[in-house]
User: What shape does this take?
Amino acid sequence: MGATSDLVRYVAKADYSDFPQEVVETTKAFILDTLGVAVAGSSAEGCKDVVDQMLYWGGKPESTIWVFGGKVPSFHAPLANAMMAHARDFDDTHEGIGAHCHVSVLPAALAAAEQRGGVSGRELITAVALGVDLFVRLGQSINLFYSWHSTGILGSYGAAFAAGKILGLSEKQLQNAIGIAHTQTPGCNRQARKDGSLAKRMNPGFAAMGGVLSANLALRGLTGAKAALEGEHGFFNLYKDHGEEFDADQATRRLFDGLGERYEVTNLSFKPYGACRSTHAAIDGALELSRLGQIRPDDIESVTVYASAVTMEKVGTPFEIRTNPQVDAQFSIPYTVAVALLRGKVLLSDFEIDNIKSQDVNQLAKKVQCILKPELKGRVPTILEIRTKDGRTLSNTVNVIKGHPSKPLTREERLEKFLSCWDSAANLLPRDNADRLIQAVDRLEEVEEVSQLVEMLT
Assistant: This one.
């Protein structure tokens, strides 16, 4: 038997009772976080355009478009909902693989749950926890070629597993679903992000949509590639970094290491700021130095951020406002550090277009320079240095980013984030719905019908 069939057999047999309580509680926390950032994303650029297109096409009313309302075919709703969840760049991050996990898996699972009906909270937790775990494990099994957008690529498989589990697919059908997902997995790449376009926000949506579509086609009896992971043209070979030696056996060992014992959802980070995770170490450093050094923005002569090559490529260039200012700001250390030093915090409102164009922020952003330090790898460590006009130099090194499992957000901070997202919705949603949603997710394992969660989002 191969890696694909072995993994499918595990998923088919997996049950809520298999999960430690920590996994259940962490999954619930990320479900609430993801719903919150999707609500905030509803007012982000480009999202309403996609929603309007889905509603224009119409079709069988199976699954709900969050915030805006209206039901569309089950594989259309996740395109809009996952895009909203990713648009603010406020969604979870797995530091090891640099990807956002729930943003594809949860919209797919909830859309499939509405389609099927009668899905319990325990079933949702099971499907989401499995989908996220396998999403991350696939990302850990190989070094993805850098041009791929890992969130979109990995999300297709995670979404297919989650949707398939919700729809009650048999082991054979699940294998077909993953094979179909592999056949139509989008070639999600980084160029849209590099160009600062809104299409970057759609990658998790394509993945979520494809996962639900794959599960439904498998349910109908369509067959898919049998060796979707280990085959000659399977996941391992197709998406690997072609500049490195590749060992399929090693990839398989990584995929299955600790399966059913270690769940990667507990290794995810909550984001405290609505910007690319690669900016967060610099933001943390700026906020800490500002507090410790009692620095006023007018005192600043220059700010230098020493970062790795990957951080420089993603977020280290001088701040420039192009076609889509929100994207430019989300992917800029100079902009986000300037906001942190000027405002003493970084909020969702700082990524609204009028605030992005603020003269004081842009003037300070010009004083922020990112410099490559080749010995640095990944997001941390990141070194920040501030020079003041009176000759002082303050510096610190950030080794752990706020929101990481070893430096977690408190429950109070997570709820504050959720409510700030709720207040940023495109359409005014009752605050009472937010309170009810928090309570429902807190006791999700007792909920008999998860469609009630969706009802609170409109």
In short: DSSP finds 21 helices and six strands in the chain. The chain has a mean pLDDT of 95.
